[in-house]
Amino acid sequence: MTLKSYLLIMVGSSSLCTAALLFIFNFVNPDKTNWLGFLLCYLAIFLSASGWSAVIGFFVRFLIMRQKLLFRAVREAFRQAFLLAILVSSTLFLLARDLFSWLNVALLILAIALLELFLSSLQPRRPEEVSEINMEG
Question: If you average pLDDT over every residue of the chain, what do you get?
């Protein structure tokens, strides 16, 4: 898949998720809906947030930070967008259930930060980093 097709698919699908979210906000009554209405709402929030965050994160990495490897920029942007979408959706869920407190949000942020640390440590090292380690030890 080329970078252009990836970006077109991400922008298109994010736009559709945002349109679905606006539809849900306008036409679904939260007082009378069942669990399916809430599930679709949180799913639309999650997908919309992850899609737009991935696109914006890629452009920040590519244009501002001038990363050379596009694959790495796309992978990091998508991973962090996914985690940001989990944070946004979880925070909104906590707000809806009256469970939003500084302790719950701090624990949520800590859990997501630890997950990001774990996922970023799974990435293979660049060849120059491996050769530096081999020369030192």
Answer: 88
